[in-house]
Amino acid sequence: MITGTGTPAPAPLLIACALGIERLALRGGLSGAAGPVTVLRTGMGPQAADRAVTQALADGSVLHDAAVIATGFCAGLAPGMHPGDLVVADETRDSSGHTECVGVELLAKELARAVPRRVIHTGPLIGADHVVRGAERAALHAAGALAADMESAATLRSAVRAGTRPVAAVRVVVDAPEHELVRIGTLRGGISAFRVLRTVLPAFFEWHRSLLLPRR
């Protein structure tokens, strides 16, 4: 896209989340972005995420060349994780394959600056079509995954299928092996995760800004 001055317009940033409560956490603080930003609520589950992201990035849409970040809540799989911890995926996985993430170290660095008192984990994020608990959680961790959610893998796979673009996934742990929640938002862990999710946008914007810099 070319602006009225004849210079290329900054590529958009699409931030995808599944739940209304996640969208609520991300509503504020959109100023300071390096280009246009859209927060897309996809709905729950991999099929909903696939459908919503594919439609948003369709040829001819204003977002067709957008960088994409999948975000929201996740289940931590590793012992010792706590609600409010952050997970920066180096790749997303599911039964359909895996997608490599871009700018992982930068995202982790910027999140550490934005939320200095929170633990940040980096590793594989696995996709599921249901909430994982108990023995299944342990089995997924034994297979190498750090955290699980239902939409990130489908979101990033759909994004790269629609065209070459930077993709990333950042999730906030809402429950963990020693801190399982019955329902998001009803216990302290859910409230903690919500508060952390409200702080992540500056890190996302710095990641996006770095993608717009000329490469040497």
The gyration radius over C-alpha positions equals 16 Å
Overall 3D form: globular
- What are the secondary-structure elements, in order, as H or E? EHEHEEEHEHEHEHH
Total strands: the figure is 8
Distance between the termini: 22 Å
Sheet with the most strands: spatial strand order: 3-7-6-4-8
Largest sheet: 5 strands, mixed, barrel
| Residue-averaged pLDDT | 87
Roughly what percent helix? 25-40%
Number of distinct helices: 7
Oligomeric category: single chain
Strand coverage percent: 15-25%
Structural class assignment: alpha/beta
Identify low-pLDDT runs.
1-7
What does this structure look like?
- It contains seven helices and eight strands, in the order βαβαβββαβαβαβαα.
- Helix content is 32%, strand content 25%.
- The protein has helices at residues 20-26, 46-56, 104-114, 134-142, 152-161, 188-197, 201-212; strands at 13-17, 37-41, 67-76, 86-94, 97-100, 120-127, 147-149, 167-175.
- Helix 1 (20-26) links the parallel strand 1 and strand 2 (37-41).
- The chain has 216 residues and is α/β, with parallel strands linked by helices.
Write the layout of secondary structure elements.
Layout (H helix, E strand, L loop, with lengths): L12 E5 L2 H7 L10 E5 L4 H11 L10 E10 L9 E9 L2 E4 L3 H11 L5 E8 L6 H9 L4 E3 L2 H10 L5 E9 L12 H10 L3 H12 L4
Parallel strand pairs: 1-2, 1-3, 3-8, 4-6, 6-7
Antiparallel strand pairs: 3-7, 4-5, 4-8
Helix pairs in contact: 2-5, 3-7
In short:
By secondary structure, the protein is α/β, with parallel strands linked by helices. The protein is built from seven helices and eight strands.
